Amino acid sequence: LVEDSVRYVWRHGVSTDSTRRAQGPIAVRASGVQVEDIDGNVYLDALAGGSAAATLGHGREDVADRVASQIRTMQWVSLRTFINEPSIELAKRIAEVAPGDLTTSFFVCDGSEAVESATQLVKSYHRQRGNPGKTKFLYRKTGYHGTTLVGASASSSSEFRTWFAPLAPGFVELDACYTYRRPSGMTEEEYGEACAQAIEDEILRQGPETVAGILAEAIPAALVLTPPPNYLRRLREICDKYDILWIDDEVFIGVGRTGTYFGSEHYGVVPDVITVSKGITGGYVPLGAAIASQRVMDVLIADGGTGQAKVSGHTYSAHPVACAAGLAVLDAIRDEKLVDNVRDQGEWLLAQLRAWGRTNPHVGDVRGKGFLIGIELVRDKETREPFPAEWGVGGKVSKAGMRNLFMCRATGDVVTLFPALVATHDDVRAMFDGVTKAIEEALG
Ligand code: PMP
């Protein structure tokens, strides 16, 4: 089977190195926060399935029943012809938990499509307001927004940028804004202000009449870049000043992961569009959504009066089975008070990791919110000097974790944990043991 997997299944990544393609055990079943491979090894899952989608953990009968029942009742009809009930109910439930006046969902199949649709919505908004020249998007270094041409063009991965060139025009990179790496001598507040000023300077350089939107996660998830407290508020003000819309990409962090339904809530700001995917269906079936504010929708439907969002649709837009899964997940989050669980257990885990990190000479920073936690490893704790990239320290940690049957992830030298929202106190205690052991072993 392993040989077949190398021959017939092409995994992620642009590498053509066959050893890379062969990496990774073959998973056969999963339950709760555990995943079992073909050899009977059982891994502790601190990554909600590996990419933050398994919000409720694995093997939920309630979601399976809801999905099966929807398949039996009506598996699919096209949104071009009919609206379906589960999509109406899900959109209404999302509006109840979304911040501000974000009321209207456009459902697609995954995160990349949600981002793509959001950018189309934003362009349509400006066109409708008589500003068709507003077409550029600003995004940030270290950002990741998906694999379509738009997603790749707004993502700073150098692999993407090299292999998939030429990318779409009109995407402009901003610096990341990330408290741990702020210039010495600057307060968090001053740094947040400096980052905001840099955004405004870039807008003026490009010409505000050409800038449509800013594509930015409230908390960039891959490296868990928690921003200075004033940064997003200033970003919001700048967007308003120049009639630029903020797409808050919450594909990773949305739907309860950070201890609030949406990450932007931590900073008291309301985006114009939020994108979600991953966690909304708990990994049972794929779904994505661009959730637009009433203010944006009012502009979009003003002249045509058709009530149709001006974005391109997909065959599987608002798939009823996916929307049924989304409803089951939102029900469970509400009924089991999972956002509170994430906040409580996340705070405990963060505090434990910080206390442990203080005594470890290579733990530079432990940061995060709720069940999104990053541990930045550095060569020198005092000077914050990073390890040389070629040492691949982060990669060694995730490999050590897998050897010890513990799933953790590293992006660069930031080791990340993002467990299912249902993880109990015993689970997060075991995750603390798992990640500290993996780091100590890799650095050993
Ligand atoms: N945006 C963000 C912030 C993401 O984390 C991801 C996926 N990692 C995407 C977009 C793309 O989502 P998908 O992989 O479902 O296309």
Question: What does the model show?
Answer:
It comes from Sphaerisporangium rufum. Residues 14-22 have low confidence and may be disordered. The chain starts with a helix and ends with a helix. The chain has helices at residues 2-8, 18-22, 61-73, 85-97, 111-128, 149-153, 158-163, 188-206, 231-241, 294-302, 320-335, 338-358, 393-403, 425-443, and strands spanning 27-31, 34-37, 42-45, 102-108, 136-140, 171-174, 211-215, 245-249, 273-276, 288-293, 363-369, 372-377, 406-407, 409-411, 414-417. It has 2 domains: 2-59 and 337-443, Aspartate Aminotransferase, domain 1 (Alpha-Beta Complex); 74-335, 3-Layer(aba) Sandwich (Aspartate Aminotransferase, domain 2), CATH 3.40.640. The relative contact order is 0.15. It is of the alpha/beta class and 444 residues long. Strands 4-10-9-8-7-5-6 form a 7-stranded mixed β-sheet, sandwiched between helices. Strands 1-2-3-13 form a 4-stranded mixed β-sheet. It contains 14 helices and 15 strands. The protein is 39% helix and 16% strand. Residues 51, 110-112, 115, 144-147, 217, 221, 249, 251-252, 277 line the site of 4'-deoxy-4'-aminopyridoxal-5'-phosphate. The site of 4'-deoxy-4'-aminopyridoxal-5'-phosphate has 15 residues, from helix 5.
